[in-house]
Amino acid sequence: MLIKYYIILIIKKMFSKLIITNYYSVSERALQFISNLTAVFPFSKYVTEEGQRVVGGVLIGTGLWIAVTFVMRNVLKYLLSWHGWMFNRHGQTKYGVVVRAPAVSLKKLQRLSQPAALESLSRHFDATHDSHVASAPSQVSDWWEEYIYLRGRGPIMVNSNYYAMDFLYVIPTTRQAARAGNSIHAIMMYRRKLDRAQIKPLYLLEKRVPLCSAQWERMFNTSRIPGLETDVLQHMNESKHIAVYYKGHFYKVWMFYDGRLLLPREIEQQIERILADKSEPQPGEELLAALTAGDRVPWAKARSQFFSRGKNKQSLDAVEKAAFFVSLDDTEQRYDPENPVQSLDSYGKSLLHGKCHDRWFDKSFNLIVFKNGTMGLNAEHSWADAPVVGHLWEHVLSSDPVRLGYTEDGHCKGNPHPNLPGPQRLQWDIPEECQAVISSSLKVAKALADDVDMHIIPFNNFGKGLIKKCKTSPDGFIQIALQLAHFRDKGKFCLTYEASMTRLFREGRTETVRTCTTQTCDFVRAMMNDKATREEKLKLLKVAAEKHQDLYRLAMTGDGIDRHLFCLYLVSKYLGEDSAFLKEVLSEPWRLSTSQTPLQQLDLFDLKRHPEFVTSGGGFGPVADDGYGVSYIILGEDLINFHISSKHSSPETDSHRFGSNIRKAMLDILDLFQLDNKANNK
Length: 682
Fold this sequence. Notes:
The chain is α+β, with helices and mostly antiparallel strands. It contains 20 helices and 20 strands. It has helices spanning 2-20, 23-40, 49-81, 116-128, 131-135, 139-150, 176-195, 264-275, 296-306, 310-320, 340-352, 386-404, 432-450, 464-469, 474-490, 518-527, 534-556, 562-575, 580-587, 655-671; strands spanning 162-165, 203-204, 209-210, 222-225, 232-235, 241-246, 249-254, 256-257, 260-261, 325-328, 365-369, 375-379, 424-425, 452-459, 496-501, 510-514, 592-596, 618-620, 628-635, 639-647.
């Protein structure tokens, strides 16, 4: 694979020579070419010999520039499409890819490949469908967004939206307005960097292989608009205000004054004005956001009937076209060392659904700031996946206590503005007929929220440090532990979903890793067999972990199967060809849905020096009525946070029971290696 390295060096050398070549030497070499051209395309008699030299230089230079650009583009495309480096085992030298960051353009990322059968059907579909679909960089992502997210007619609260939590152990300030001031300012600074293309792309392989950044485009100024058959994503190019909700009131708060972004203390000043508002909500205003928490069709009909004109339209526009939504929660949430289980579970549920009427679930994300200064996010899922929101959240958490900071009495640094206009209270005229729809949506949402069984585990017995000593990938270790825990919990195996990103490809999103493999099942059975020896279990564990890693790599590099099956199903429906196989495969429930939220900007968090600034990660609701949703984040060397969700209504599930099984499974697997570790003492 060193040949690829030399190819890129040769091309770069050719390119540099072209740049520094003397203009006259280029034109001299072009004279003979120009002379030949004059026989076919004679120059005007008014063109001097010097002019002919110029034309020759331009023609030759332009031609060579195009040729070199074409060659470099295709060489880079070829290099980026080679994923062999990902399949190297730990300790092997990674040869074959040397791509310098300044030369890489995301437009050169490969389109997600398709198997031959799907490719043939796709060509027929493209030929008979509209040109947008035919020329889309990623049909998989387009269809995934529409059919998995936007066409869903059930509530997006709990079923689709997900959450992110604050620091686990500390709250930088207990002043709600101050925490909101710093956080809002940090988010707006992130948006400024995004608008100026100053957000550094993420890379793999020691910053040589780029990941697609397309999902960042709709992070701000975006709202999901309900429709009768399908929703749409409305994205504004610019928005200079945010929408704020507090105790039944909606406000429009401008983020700019006198031609500049408001400073943290000035934003705190605006939030203090909102918190001081003791007026009563207008009829129907307090519960209005419940429309975004219930079924989509009633919300679509109500929006068309009651919010398409007058003051209601103006106020709704202020919410939907805001940069993002802020909810000032009047409850207190935080991790309580004296009551860790109940406090974290309550905190997670509040971020996931709140009171069902105090979050605008259609916005790209909601910043939620609680009365005691704790905060979190609730994000809509259709526009992007969790790592994208996680990247923003890492920036906010690192900026808040360190770069921005607070005064000794807990306020944002700086001074209030004496002439700053106050927030604008949004006006509504909601008739009783609409209020009835709101009440109906709230009833649906409340039933869904009350059914959520949430449990969060800060697993600090050990972390990736000891797992690596076992010569096992941390993700594989955890996934196998989840299979063991699930078997102990239910006495059977189930179809298991793990999300893997496909952002090695242009506009890639996710692929499924089916982690309940034959190899993993063999290991779990051995763990349940008292007659199996430790050596036998370790051997099976190694095989299962390697199989998991291979499946994960295949998913990342476009060789997963689920998105291809999904596209085959859509094409078959379009062609009117029913497939019993596809119907059966795609209708099987994922009774264990899992996802790892990676910490992406490690340079922002020095957990060795400041372990108190560890975050809690985030989570999501259960995917199946009788299943579990599990999100986990690996933090530092000694902490793994698990977020477990299920439904109280299912007699087969219990999030706390499953959490206990996860803890036991993690410890039992580690015990196979007989390492001296602190886990044995806890």
